[in-house]
Design a protein that fits this description.
The protein starts with 6 loop residues before the first helix and ends with a helix. It has two domains: about 5-70 and about 325-430, Aspartate Aminotransferase, domain 1; about 75-325, 3-Layer(aba) Sandwich (Aspartate Aminotransferase, domain 2). The chain has helices at about 5-15, 75-85, 95-105, 120-135, 160-165, 175-180, 190-195, 225-235, 255-260, 285-290, 305-320, 325-345, 370-375, 380-390, 415-430, and strands spanning about 40-45, 50, 55-60, 115, 140-145, 180-185, 205-210, 240, 265-270, 280-285, 350-355, 360-365, 395, 405. About 50% of the residues are buried. It is globular, with a radius of gyration of 21 Å. The chain has a seven-stranded mixed sheet with strand order 4-10-9-8-7-5-6, with helices on both faces. Strands 1-2-3-13 form a four-stranded mixed sheet. The longest helix is centred in the C-terminal third of the chain and has 21 residues, at about 325-345. With about 425 residues, the chain is of the alpha/beta class. Helix 3 runs parallel beside helix 11 (about 305-320). The structure holds ligand KE4. The site of ligand KE4 has 21 residues, from helix 4 and helix 5.
Length: about 425
């Protein structure tokens, strides 16, 4: 049990369970896999969050990725206040949605047209429907441990909460739907070739997190993404990069910039909404123009392009572009990684750390983590104890071994040093 006083949070959780399934609006927030009741957050400020019992934490969840500038960034709040004055939603076109779309298409050369939606799930679902509509094919290939939101087609061997809670798939996903989703192994191009070989001309798309973030962080092997792009081009299969996490995270131009890949369709989310509900999918004009109203593939949304989300997203991306935040983010993230590795050396521990830019995971396994099978060798019981210790030491991590820690622009050197110290004390207490 975490050493913190969490009395108010417990009261709230009991109350929540009376009216919300599991007391949460998203399963990973339930803290189930770390065997404790969830914390309720009062407010956030920069790199910190404060719970309703008055505990302060250095936050590495960052709302699961969106808050690359940190909590309650003045520039975002100011922009939101300015837009909120005019009204919150019109269900009609606004200028700000064009401005955000222009920023995205200027930054991602693979994205010629982009459609806004309200979540990463919607982005991925819509991208797959578009690929199926354009190709006339039904099957898709995903990768074990990758998570593309809770759309039916994706809840097969998925990561994030599905993996964390050990849900074998999900009741409610029909046999027919499941049989259209083929599952390959990340970093194993032969597994993709095999599926394509046995499903000739039936595969509409391959969808992948180019850097896995939902089994913990798993980077692609050097040639994997290049080989995947070549294979999908040869087989005339649409390649969908799910960059909901990696977009504007691992580089301004996301993983496709970092690894030099030109996907056909890209899913975005999280950071592009600056903490407000958002998703987007975009790509080659020949596909995107098949979307209604110009094309036959239907997709829609009441709050798609919501002006508040567009304003927060536009402001966030403008800061990322104008302040060129990535070199400093890389430096800070490396400082943290090196500090954790130094601690493990001192404590004669050999757990694995994977990091790509400002997304990082500490796996409680002695194996190198390069795919799903190696990720799940992690000792989730040990992670759970570590989670409690870190929380008691004032560091708020994702309540799952199979999630990602995010460093933000707001994390300063003092935060990093404190986190390294908390990590040392926590690891030591596990010995
Ligand atoms: P949302 O529908 O949750 O906005 O996005 C789904 C999604 C799609 N693609 C990737 C690569 C994602 O990581 C996600 C969502 N990420 C999880 C955390 N790893 C969301 C947290 C939650 O489910 O509460």
């Amino acid at each position: 049990m975490s050493g913190n006083n969490l009395k108010e949070s417990l009261t709230m959780f009991k109350r929540a369970r009376k009216v919300i399934p599991g007391g949460v609006n998203s399963p990973v927030r339930a803290f189930k896999s770390v065997g404790m009741n969830p914390v309720y957050i009062q407010r956030g400020e920069g790199s910190k969050i404060f719970d309703i019992d008055g505990n302060e934490y250095i936050d590495y969840v960052c709302s699961w990725g969106p808050l690359i500038l940190g909590h309650a960034d003045d520039r975002i709040l100011k922009k939101l206040a300015e837009y909120a004055q005019r009204g919150t939603s019109f269900g009609a076109n606004t200028k700000i949605e064009i401005k955000l779309a222009e920023l995205i298409t200027e930054t991602y050369s693979s994205i010629e047209l982009v459609r806004m939606v309200n979540s990463g799930t919607e982005a991925a679902m819509s991208a797959v429907r578009l690929a199926r509509g354009c190709s006339g094919r039904s099957k898709i290939i995903k990768f074990e441990g990758c998570y593309h939101g809770h759309g039916d087609s994706f809840l097969i061997k998925a990561g994030s909460g599905v993996l964390t809670l050990g849900i074998p798939g999900s009741p409610g996903v029909t046999e027919h739907t499941a049989q259209d989703t083929l599952v390959a192994r990340f970093n194993d191009i032969e597994s993709v070739e095999k599926l394509i070989g046995s499903n000739k001309s039936q595969i509409a798309a391959v969808i992948i997190e180019p850097v896995m973030g939902n089994a913990g962080v798993i980077p692609p092997d050097s040639e994997f993404l290049k080989n995947l792009r070549e294979l999908t081009l040869t087989e005339d299969i649409i390649l969908i990069f799910d960059e909901v996490i990696t977009g504007f995270r691992v580089a301004l131009g996301g993983a496709q910039e970092l690894y030099g890949i030109d996907p056909d369709i890209t899913c975005l989310g999280k950071i592009i909404g600056g903490g407000l509900p958002v998703g987007a999918f975009g790509g080659k004009r020949k596909y995107m123009e098949q979307l209604a109203p110009d094309g036959p593939v239907y997709q829609a949304g009441t709050l798609s392009g919501n002006p508040l989300a567009m304003a927060a997203g536009y402001e966030t991306l403008s800061v990322l572009i104008n302040d060129d935040v990535y070199p400093a983010l890389e430096k800070k993230s490396k400082l943290l990684e090196d500090g954790l590795k130094e601690n493990m050396k001192k404590l004669h521990l050999n757990y694995s750390i994977n990091r790509v830019g400002s997304m990082m995971s500490l796996f409680f396994t002695g194996h190198d983590v390069h795919d799903f099978d190696s990720a799940v060798t992690s000792d989730t019981g040990l992670f759970s104890r570590y989670f409690h210790e870190m929380l008691a030491n004032g560091v708020y991590l994702a309540p799952s071994q199979f999630e990602t820690s995010f460093i933000s622009v707001a994390h300063n050197n003092e935060d990093i040093e404190k986190t390294i110290e908390a990590n040392y004390l926590s690891l030591k207490s596990l010995k």
